[in-house]
Structures are given as structure tokens and as C-alpha cells.
Amino acid sequence: MSSPKQIAARNAAAIAERFTMKGRRALVTGGSVSLGREIAIAFADAGADVAIHFSRTADTAFGLPHASETTVSDIQERGGRGLAIEADFSRPGEARRCVQAAIAGLGGIDVLVVCASVQKRTAFTALPTDEIEWQLRINYLATIELLQEALPPMKARRWGRVVTIGSINQTRPEPDLAVYASLKSAQHNLAINLAADYAAHGVTVNNLSPGLIVTERNRWRRQDAWQWQRIQQTSAPMQRAGDVNEIAGAALLLCSEAGSFITGADLQATGGRHLGW
Fold it and tell me: Taking a C-beta distance cutoff of 8 angstroms, is the pair 95, 101 a contact?
């Protein structure tokens, strides 16, 4: 007869096995801060080796110039290999180079999470052409480069996981984020098309759409505690912002063994915002 302690340990091991990423090699773009960082750490906890893409300029703007080094160190403390790749996705070819560097550093890529993105809260008619092109390059064209480079080896090995990080703005747009929202919708459509094309080759492709999440990007909105509370209460039926850990858990589901029969999904992690509330 097993003791309660033995039963608990066995159960914990069984759950861990369901969500294991042991032996997998992952690339998480935008992986140095906030949501990307938490996804990278969750993958490392599940046994994966993880390469993170980062932008030193963006991290410095957040006041976190050494975020990539910290994240790699945290990955390594969990027993996995960690690798940081700096790349400017606003420049053609950089996303493709990023995948190549991850493959060279880890010996291959089994999992790709497309998390890096930018947005500009500006009225549509006032958005300058250069800022439209900036968003187009980073939020969509770089995604195409990443996928074109990462998918063929996955197909050849007949195993792969791809998660594109979308947004509640795909279905609940804000007027001042029209270009950002339209590009997230385009990325979602791309994921659906690729999911159908690669399903027979053991590669799943899914979109994960967060709602309001506490991140470095919206830190400025939390300066006024009263205003932030009001924003949370009106953001979703749960009346609160999500935590990056809650989104990382969803990404782990889609990229681990637990998500092996899920493809072409748009997982709405929005606190119910997508319900039209």
C-alpha cells in the first residue's frame, strides 16, 4: 500500500509527464521580458532547451537593458540550455537569421513561439507611413520569415509545435490600434492555413490570443492605481487583468505532449473579453 506521500509524488510525476517538453528545443521571440520571458521559463521548467530572441533597444526602453542575460541565466538554473539572440525584426532577413542562429546554437528547433510584436496607440488617420511599415515588418513580415525558416525542418522530422501570439484585438478592436489589430488578424489567418497544411506531418500550428495582461508594455497604464483598477474592471467579465504566468500555462499546453491533438485553434485567454462583454 503506497503512502500518501508516495501517491502525491507519483501523481505529480504523471502530470509532469503529460506536459513534458523534455528533449525539445524551443525558440521564443520577444523572450526576454514579460509574456515571452514567462513562456521561455515555463518551457525550461518542462525540460526544454530554450533560445530567446530579444531587442536590446526595446529592453532598454523598458528600463531592463540586461533582461536577456537574466532570462538565459534563469533558464540554465532549471537545467536546460539557454541562448539569447539579438535581432532587429524591423530589418528584412533578421527574423530568418534568428531562426538559423537558434538552430545552430541548440542543434535544431522543435518549437517556435512568435511573441515579439510592437504597437502604436494612434488614431488611424494620424498614423505615419513609417510607423505603419514598422508595425507591418515586425508584426507580420517577420512572422512569415520565422515560419518559412522553421517549418521545413519540423516537417522533415515529422514533429513540431508553433504558437503565434495574437491578441483580443483580433475580435475586439480598439480604434487607436487598428493597424496592430489587423496585422494580428492576418497572423491568425496565416496560422490557420499552415495548420491545415502541416497537420499530416506531425506539426501543430495554433494561435494564442491574450486579453489584458500585466506586462512591461502597459506599465504606463498602471501609474495611476485608481485608473488601472477601472481599466481592469471594464476589461472582461473576470474584471481583472491576467498574469503572464496564466498565458504561459496556455502556451505550455499547446507546445507540450498535452497539446498533441490541438491544431488550428485560436485559444482565447482573455478573462472572457472575447464573449462580447
Answer: no
Size of the chain in residues: 277
pLDDT category of residue 50 using cuts at 50, 70 and 90: very high
In single-letter form, the type of residue at position 84 comes to A
pTM: 0.95
> What's 238's DSSP letter?
T
**Residue 82: inside a domain, yes or no?**
yes
Residue range 52-75, pLDDT digits in tens: 999 999 999 999 999 999 999 999
Q: What is the pLDDT of residues 177-229, one digit of tens each?
A: 999 999 999 999 999 999 999 999 999 999 999 999 999 999 998 999 999 99
Strand partners, 242: 213
CATH number at residue 260: 3.40.50.720
State how many domains the chain has: 1
Q: Cα–Cα distance between 220 and 214 in angstroms, integer?
A: 11
Distance of alpha carbon 185 from alpha carbon 120, whole angstroms:
16
Average model confidence (pLDDT) across the chain: 95
Q: Which three cell numbers stand for residue 185?
A: 488578424
Rounded Cα gap, residues 83 and 69, in angstroms: 9
Nearest CA among 76, 90, 92, 81 for reference residue 27: 81
Q: Which residue has the cell 505532449?
A: 257
Angle at the Cα of 50 from the Cα atoms of 44 and 70, rounded to 5 degrees: 80
Q: Is residue 53 part of a domain?
A: yes
- Per-residue pLDDT tens for 133-151? 999 999 999 999 999 999 9
Please state, in angstroms and rounded to a whole number, the distance separating the CA atoms of residues 155 and 137. Answer: 26
The three cell numbers locating residue 141: 513580415
Assess if residue 33 is contained within a domain: yes
